[in-house]
Amino acid sequence: MEIQLLLEGVYRHYGFDFREYAPASLKRRLYRRMLSEGLSTISALQERVLHDPQCMERLLLDLSINVTAMFRDPTFYMAFREKAVPLLRTYPFTRIWVAGCSTGEEVYSLAILLEEEGLYERTRIYATDINQTVIEQARAGVFPLDKMQDYTRNYIKAGGKRAFSEYYTARYGGALFARSLLDNVVFAQHNLVSDRGFNEFQAIVCRNVMIYFDRSLQNKVLELFHGSLVMFGILGLGHKESLKFSAFEDQYAELVGEERLYRRTA
Ligand SMILES: C[S@@+](CC[C@H](N)C(=O)[O-])C[C@H]1O[C@@H](n2cnc3c(N)ncnc32)[C@H](O)[C@@H]1O
Q1: How many whole angstroms from 103 Cα to the centroid of ligand 1?
Q2: Percentage of the chain surpassing pLDDT 90?
Q3: What are the tens digits of pLDDT across the range 105-119?
Q4: Which end of the chain is more exposed for a tag (fewer CB within 10 A), N or C?
Q5: What is the reported pLDDT for 27?
Q6: In this model, does residue 99 exceed pLDDT 90?
Q7: Coil, strand, or helix at residue 232?
Q8: For a substitution probing ligand 1, which of 26, 63, 130 has the most ligand atoms within 8 Å of its CB?
Q9: Residue 208 beta carbon below 6 angstroms from any ligand 1 atom
Q10: Mean pLDDT, to the nearest integer, of 49-69?
């Protein structure tokens, strides 16, 4: 009950709605935050969160698990290159929504892929996340140098066509990605639970975000995507996510089933 009250308070006071996030991982994260704040009850955490916006910021970072990587699940990017790109080519201009973009690795990966396929110039990527801090990191585009070996391997497995090192320079103690990759990217804070759709997209990529939501919240977000996707538009989910058993199963066809790439058909 204390957890429910805390989540209700956070929602009413700050508008962040975690009430339908999957309970097990939520509980773990709230307890971790409670201990880090030196508190012994969830009610005490509620009190602090409601009176101290900085504590809310810290909690937000805890709850919005930001783990990501460039060309994460390379087979997804390979499938996107082979099956989604030819469909996107049929449009004179393409708008892609990357929802829950975290620190931006996924956005840079897509920009690189589209660049190599000659599509980037006529694409606009809208990259959103609930968390303003990660969006700022995404804009900066500096990623740890020691990750570059892994990312190079992913890039090659994803069908990359150049030398991965062409896209970054060592700077600021990290790998600074080419600024031109952001020419057609718009970053914005957006909450999938409480904000509306804001455009009509030819493709929506939302990977490893809905795993943290319960079934009813997943359906709510899928409804938002459905209303934001053109007919025959493409939807890309994470490997552990699926439209199977969702309220939208019948409105999509599998483009590449095992990669969770779908196409809207109704
Ligand atoms: C695990 S990361 C996934 C990042 C990237 N899509 C990937 O697959 O590598 C999940 C992201 O979803 C964001 N997120 C969680 N709840 C959200 C919400 N209600 N609205 C928008 N973004 C949300 C988090 O802030 C986090 O950056």
Answers
A1: 9
A2: 85
A3: 999 999 999 999 999
A4: N
A5: 95
A6: yes
A7: strand
A8: 130
A9: yes
A10: 90
- Summarised one tens digit per residue, pLDDT across range 62-72 is 887 888 999 99
Using a 6 Å cutoff on CB, does residue 34 contact ligand 1? no
106 lines ligand 1 (CB under 6 A): yes
CA of 221 to the centre of ligand 1 (A): 13
> Encoding tokens for residue 102?
């975290």
Using an 8 Å Cβ cutoff, are 88 and 202 in contact?
A: yes
Is 90's pLDDT higher than 90? yes
Residue 178 near residue 85, CB atoms below 8 Å? no
* Residue corresponding to tokens 């439209």: 243
Examine the pLDDT at 46 and tell me if it is beyond 90.
Answer: yes
Structure tokens at 54: 């900085």
Q: Which two tokens stand for residue 255?
A: 């483009």
Give the tokens for residue 45. Answer: 């955490």
Of all protein residues, the one whose alpha carbon is nearest to atom 16 of ligand 1 is 64
Beta-bridged to residue 254, according to DSSP, are 262
Using a 10 angstrom Cβ sphere, with 0-12 exposed, 13-18 middle and 19 or more buried, the burial of residue 124 is middle
Largest separation between any pair of C-alpha atoms in the chain:
58
Q: Exposed, middle or buried: residue 12 (CB in 10 Å: 0-12, 13-18, 19+)?
A: exposed
Q: Write the residue with the smallest CA distance to atom 17 of ligand 1.
A: 130
| Distance from residue 174's CA to the centre of ligand 1 (Å) | 23
Q: Please tell me if the CB atom of residue 131 comes closer than 6 angstroms to any atom of ligand 1.
A: yes
> How far is the centre of ligand 1, averaged over its atoms, from the C-alpha of 211 (Å)?
10
Question: Which residues make beta-bridge pairs with 261?
Answer: 236, 256
